């Protein structure tokens, strides 16, 4: 959905809203897998960065991203590079940045002026930076792992 | 022949490329594809996830930063350059300019 909206150049708030929600769901899936079965993980709005960081410990994610065991150090640097962009996406949730900070869902008040997400550029969020496409590729690799773990060949030994 | 706006696109592409290189020091090469209305970049970086296709990510113009054209950026690994074709309508690798 995010890819579609991005290709169609939909307003950036709509694109980022879908992305932020999707990353939150992915993080929830990660945390559910690592926590107590049946228990909802706490603070899901801020779980994405943590789950990206946690990916360092996941050999299955390392492999699907194409980093064999002998490139583990490179994989760890790759994950470190993703974290600032992950944090930017996480902060787009209204519950994270605070009521008066830019978010993709609700208007906010700044210096006495109401701003709508629709008319806000969100330029600070990965604009013109390769961190964003990299994070997106990582996210899609994680999704493919969840969706069809059997259909994708192992990309590295 | 390169038109004035092509040159403008390339100049802005270089600005984005500089920012990318500073943020991602592992980038080995950056290619800009011809267009007079959009900045089309493929960055070659060994420290990224493997891809099955080159799927660019689209950004809006950012006039405050001097970027007046929309921008599309994709990141691939060095070994994928021989295997993957540029996105549809971008032309061939031979059409790209290394910046």
Structural overview:
The complex is a heterodimer of chains A (157) and B (99). Chain A is elongated and about 55 Å long. Chain A is built from 7 helices and 2 strands; from the N terminus they run H-H-H-H-H-H-E-E-H. The C terminus of chain A is likely disordered. Chain B has one domain. Chain B has 99 residues and is of the alpha+beta class. A 5-stranded mixed beta sheet of chain B has the order 3-4-2-1-5. The chains are: A mainly alpha (157), B alpha+beta (99).
Structural shape of chain A:
elongated
Q: Can you give the helix content of chain A as a percent range?
A: 40-55%
Oligomer: heterodimer
Hey, roughly how much beta strand do the residues of chain A contain? under 5%
Approximate helicity band of chain B: 10-25%
- Residue-averaged pLDDT of chain B: 90
Kindly report the average pLDDT value of chain A.
81
Radius of gyration of chain A: 17 Å
Number of helices of chain B: 1
Helix and strand topology:
The complex is a heterodimer of chains A (157) and B (99).
Chain A: H1 2-7, H2 12-34, H3 47-54, H4 59-64, H5 72-90, H6 94-97, E1 108-110, E2 113-115, H7 131-147
Antiparallel strand pairs in A: 1-2
Chain B: H1 4-23, E1 29-33, E2 39-44, E3 57-59, E4 71-76, E5 97-98
Parallel strand pairs in B: 2-4
Antiparallel strand pairs in B: 1-2, 1-5, 3-4
């Amino acid at each position: 959905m995010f890819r579609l909206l991005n290709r169609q150049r939909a307003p950036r708030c709509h694109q980022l809203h879908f992305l932020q929600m999707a990353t939150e769901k992915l993080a929830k899936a990660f945390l559910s897998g690592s926590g107590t079965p049946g228990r909802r993980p706490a603070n899901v709005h801020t779980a994405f960065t943590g789950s990206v960081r946690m990916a360092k410990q996941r050999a299955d994610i390392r492999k699907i991203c194409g980093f064999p065991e002998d490139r583990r150090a490179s994989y760890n640097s790759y994950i470190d590079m993703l974290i600032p962009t992950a944090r930017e996406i996480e902060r787009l949730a209204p519950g994270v940045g605070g009521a008066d900070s830019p978010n993709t869902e609700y208007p906010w008040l700044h210096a006495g002026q109401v701003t709508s997400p629709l008319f806000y550029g969100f330029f600070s969020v990965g604009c013109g930076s390769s961190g964003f496409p990299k994070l997106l590729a990582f996210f899609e690799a994680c999704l493919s792992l969840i969706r069809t773990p059997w259909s994708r060949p192992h990309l590295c030994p | 022949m390169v038109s004035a706006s092509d040159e403008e696109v390339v100049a802005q592409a270089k600005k984005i490329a500089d920012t990318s290189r500073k943020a991602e020091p592992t980038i080995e090469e950056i290619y800009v594809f011809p267009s007079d209305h959009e900045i089309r970049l493929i960055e070659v970086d060994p420290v990224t996830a493997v891809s099955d296709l080159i799927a660019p990510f689209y950004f809006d113009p950012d006039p405050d930063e001097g970027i007046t054209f929309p921008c599309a950026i994709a990141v691939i690994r060095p070994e994928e350059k021989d295997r993957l074709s540029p996105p549809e309508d971008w032309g061939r690798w031979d059409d790209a300019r290394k910046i």
